Every structure is written in structure tokens, then in C-alpha cells.
Amino acid sequence: MMDFTFTEEQEMLRDAARSFAETEIAPYAQEWDKNCAYPEEMIKKLGEQGFMGILIPEEYSGAGCGYMEFAIILEELARHDGGLALAVEAHNGLACQHILIGGNEEQKKKYLPALAAGDQIGAWCLTEPNSGSDAIAMETTATRDGDDWILNGSKQFITNGHRAQTYVVMTVTDPEASPRGITAFVVERDTPGLSTGKKEEKMGMRSSDTVVVSLDNVRVPDAQRLNDVNKGFDDVKKVLEHGRVMISALCQGLTRGALEVAAQYAQERVAFGKPIARFQSIQNKLADLAVGYEAGNLLLYRSASMLDQGTCSIKQAAMCKLFISENTTKSCLEAIQVLGGYGYLAEYNVERFLRDAKLCEIGEGTSEVMRILIAKHIDPANPAAS
User: How far is it, in rounded angstroms, from Cα 52 to Cα 338?
Assistant: First the structure.
């Protein structure tokens, strides 16, 4: 029997994350969205709370927690600012996760402690200008030169790319290998030839930075190669599978934020002599918001629990992300409708939640790709199996 009741330790973690978010994020989220940046000291503050190394084992100075705990933290952060939550998710769930999956002991000891402490933030570099959903079509190359590798290419839409000190970069090392001979490398910020473009002007998630990362004859030693040559795509798939569940937790934070604003407003707003929460059309919207959030929780907690047990399938992760991300966008739209004209104003936050939400139907696998993966992994003999 599956029990999603939080343990005492998880309840304490949730309370700590909620208190931190309400104190350190909520009062400033609108300003960060307007300025397209959160302050530099936020990463160190998050590190001091243990949130920058939540999945990193204690032997590498991390918190040593699991995916359920990470989901709890992401929801509390995203409830107030999806952009900052995205920075934390990409750092932990993508960059650090890839080092944990593909790195050797020496690499983990070298890179993970600083990342866990918030002294550094990581960026994961997969997407390219001509390679999005079709990841194996990437064109960035790594060519062997003695004990080194020479990296050339360009990565697009890289979260944390402007701030990062540690980049995990996917490259093609053998175009004839299957699938496309992909190998991952850790590249440090000050490596000659690595540069970042201007921060992109985005619809949402504006407090997080998104840039192009360019590699022009970047020389890295073989000691910075993650896992075996030409075997990186297997690690990429694992990272994405985990990341899809965690970005769903971020979505749940946005959904909850929208639900809370809508419910509070409906009690306070009076029309035709009574609070609009007493009108059936508004009650229907609030009911749908609550049901969508609860259904998302069940998918999220089941998927996170399965990740912790090592049993989460490609299909399960895709179902989790597909339903929750699309429900979040719908929920934010409905919350705006409850608020009417006020929902269109920045003051009430729900328009920002909607702008943040839309990315989640695209990043870490589009809804269209999620449906392909789900359909591909349906067993005709047992179509309801995870």
C-alpha cells in the first residue's frame, strides 16, 4: 500500500522551506520578475538552507535527501517565484544530477561540495539552436587531442548559463555511433573559449537567467569527461526522466499559488451584494482548481516515491509531467478569470504564475513528446500498468 503522508522530517522540511520562501522570496518576486534577475546572494542563502544540495549525498556535503523532499522544496519556492524555483531545479535536478549519475568518485568530490553549498550554481547544456526535442541531432563536437578534448559548438536556452561556474555539456564524439555517440563533459567557467550570450528576454520565468553558451576550441582534460565515451545519451535520458518529475513539482507550486490567490479573492470580492465565492460559476472554477491540484499531487508524489525506490518508468515520468504542466497552465488561466480585470494586473501575481507556467509545457520535453513517449510505452497486454 502506498502512503503519501509526510514523515515528521518531511513536515519539518516543508515548514522550513515555506518559511524561507514567505520571508526571502514572496516580498521581492514581483521586483525580480520586473528586473529579470534575483539577487546573487539568494544562491548562497539557498545553499545555507541545504536546498542547493538536496539530492547530493552527505559525503559530498549535500543534504542527502530524496526526490520526495526535493519535490516538497520546489513546490514551496515556486508558490512565490517560478523563476527562482527553476534555477534550483535545473541546478539540482539536471547539472548536479548528471554528475551524480555519470561522475566518478574524484569528479564528485571535486565539484559537488561547492555546488551543494551554494558557492557555485550549475548549468546543464543539452539544447542547441537546431536541436531541441530531437536531442541526438546536436552538432556540438568534442575531438580527442592527446589527453584532452577540444569542444566546439553552441548551446541554446541554458538556464543558469549566465551565473553558472560549472557546466555539464553534451557533445558528439562519434557521429557514426548509436545514438550519435554522445559524451558529456564538465566545463568550468573560466575555461578559455567558453562564453555566454546576453540574457534572453522571456515571457516568464524571468528572474532566472537563460542564455546561449558558446564553445570555441574549449580544451578540457579527459579527467572532466563524465562516464564512458559515446555513452552519454543513456545518462541524458535518466537525467531528463528525473527532471520531468521535478519540474512537475515546480508546476504544483504555481498551481497552488494560483488557487490560493483565487480562493482568497473570491471571498473578499463583493458583487451584487455578496462575495463572488457564493456564485455557482465561481464555485465551479474553484472546485476545478482544487481537484486539479490534488490530482497533480497524487501523480507527483507517486512518481517521486518511485524515483526514490528506483522504479519510476519513462512512461510514469512523462504522464506526471504531461498532466501536471498542462493542468498548471489551465489553472492559472482560470484563476485569472476568477479575479477578472484584477487578474490581468501584476499586483495579484496570477498573471506572472501563468507566464511562468507555460514554459513547463515545453522545457524538459514538450507535451507533444510526452504523449509520444506515453503511447510508445503502453503495454497492449496491460495498458494501465505504469
Answer: 36
* CA dist., res. 117 & res. 133, Å (int): 32
Set of cell numbers at residue 234: 543513456
pLDDT in tens, 114-144: 999 999 999 999 999 998 788 778 999 999 9
Whether 265 and 371 map to the same domain: the answer is yes
Judge if 103 and 14 occupy the same domain.
Answer: yes
The reply to whether 114 and 249 lie within a common domain is no
Catalytic pick among 75, 76, 89, 364: 364
Strands (DSSP E) found in the chain: 122-125, 141-145, 148-159, 166-172, 182-188, 194-196, 210-221, 225-226, 270-271, 274-275
Same domain, 101 and 138: no
Q: What is the pTM of this model?
A: 0.96
- pLDDT 10s digits, 287-309: 999 999 999 999 999 999 999 99
For residue 96, which of 77, 85, 112, 83 has the smallest C-alpha distance? 112
Residue 1 pLDDT greater than 60, yes or no:
no
The contacts of residue 93 (CB under 8 Å, 6+ apart) are 55, 70, 239, 242, 243, 246, 247
Q: Which residue is listed with cell 534575483?
A: 38
Summarize pLDDT for 249-299 with one digit per residue, the tens.
Answer: 999 999 999 999 999 999 999 999 999 999 999 999 999 999 999 999 999
What's the CATH code of the domain at 14? 1.10.540.10
Q: Where in the sequence is the domain holding 238, given as residue range(s)? A: 233-376
Number of domains in the chain: 3
364 is a catalytic site residue: yes
More confidently predicted of 106 and 131: 106
Indicate whether 252 and 365 sit together in one domain. yes
Instruction: Output the CA torsion sign for 353, 355, 356, 359.
Output: positive
Q: How far is Cα 150 from Cα 240, in angstroms, rounded to an integer?
A: 26
Residue 248 CA to residue 244 CA, distance in Å, equals 6
User: Do 253 and 363 reside in the same domain of the chain?
Assistant: yes
| Domain at 138, CATH number | 2.40.110.10
The verdict on 36 and 138 lying in the same domain is no
